[in-house]
Amino acid sequence: MKNQKKPSPPEQMLVRNNWTDSSERMTIITPLTMFYKIRDEKNGKLLHAAFYPGSMSSAYMPNNAVSHQHDHFELMYVLEGELTNKIERISYTYKKGDACLLNRNTRHMDIPGPRCSVVFINFHAEYILDLMDRDVLFDLSPRLTSPDGIIHDFLLSNLQGEERFARNYLEFSSTLHTLSSPSENPAEVLIDRMQQSLIDNRPGYSYLLRGLLLRLIYTLEDKNKFHCNFMQLDSSNEDFLFARISNYMEETHGRISRSQLSHALHYNAEYLNQIVKRRTGQSLLKLAGSYRLDWAKQLLTSTDKSVTEIVEELGFSGTSHFYDFFRKETGMSPLEYRERNQ
Q1: 84 and 110 in contact (C-beta within 8 Å)?
Q2: Does the first or last residue of the chain, that is N or C, have fewer Cβ atoms within 10 Å of its Cβ?
Q3: Residue that finishes a domain, picked among 179, 212, 235
Q4: Helix and strand tally (H, E) in the chain?
Q5: pLDDT digit string (tens) for 267-292?
Q6: Is 117 within a domain?
Q7: Secondary structure of the chain: what % helix, strand, coil (to 5)?
């Protein structure tokens, strides 16, 4: 939250006017809300802040860590630090740059850790689906953005058919490219602009807010910026971690070390290695090699790159190393494979 107005006194908190809690089921009266929880580094207390058109309210309050459901969809995005999201009976760790989109049936509770800052963007499904369907420049113009991304499909499936009774969610994590970029995370830039547009309450703010929300959705759907996994209620913490390991393997084509994975996921490397072994029967090193092999095959058959260029792209120490690796895995040399499959 940047450059916001001075917080209102605790007695002027408006959260209760926009939220009601009935039988541990939360509801929002307005189509969209923005709510923050920020752990104060100095005193360790948890600041709750809510934003409304033209104003905000805030107060230090205990974390209302009670398992609950919504009558709406909730997008949780971790801005700083770490947060534990307990979904049903399983706890998942979300770090800076991670997000989670929960449907209306999934029971959960959030537990912010030290130095944690998290934003909750809550919206009625009909509100966002209407925005996505109307994302055109003029009524007669061709559609500028196609409403067929994973978030659109998730929202739509949870409103129709048997899926409306399901308990599932989408989880997002920043790609290594996004994490290593010197520029600000694009999702966080959009979230900050949404918050500013809401509190400024200037003419046209509602249209600007809708546009920013759409851009946030399409940013989260951008595979170059975020990984996304569809998670069922019975997904375990191992499912959660294995999905993320697979995301990073695919992003880097296997060019990622145990230590890099450990740093990205905030878990011990050997623990991650054991998860991979239980799921695939392979070690992390062997799994990474299979991703490198698949990418090497694709480069050999779908491009005109030389073997030397492929060796450099895949990070092998030399051509002979690559030849030995490729022949061991396929029974033929890279050039033989290209001739047979190109």
Answers
A1: yes
A2: C
A3: 235
A4: 13, 14
A5: 889 999 999 999 899 999 999 999 99
A6: yes
A7: 45, 25, 30
Whole-angstrom distance, CA of residue 7 vs CA of residue 175: 34
Domain assignment present for 241? no
Range of the domain at 327: 247-341
CA separation for the pair 178, 191 (Å, rounded): 16
All residue ranges of the chain with pLDDT < 70 are 1-23, 64-65, 132, 134-148, 160-166, 234-235
Among 137, 124, 127, 85, smallest CA distance to 106 is for: 85
In a domain? residue 329: yes
Largest interatomic CA distance in the chain: 75
Rounded Cα distance between 310 and 322, Å, is 9
Report the C-alpha gap between 286 and 284 in whole angstroms: 5
Question: DSSP secondary-structure letter at 7?
Answer: P
d(CA 60, CA 62): 7
Q: Residue 276, exposed/middle/buried by CB under 10 A (0-12, 13-18, 19+)?
A: buried
What percent of the chain stands above pLDDT 70?
Answer: 85
Same domain for 282 and 229?
no
Q: How many structural domains is the chain composed of?
A: 2
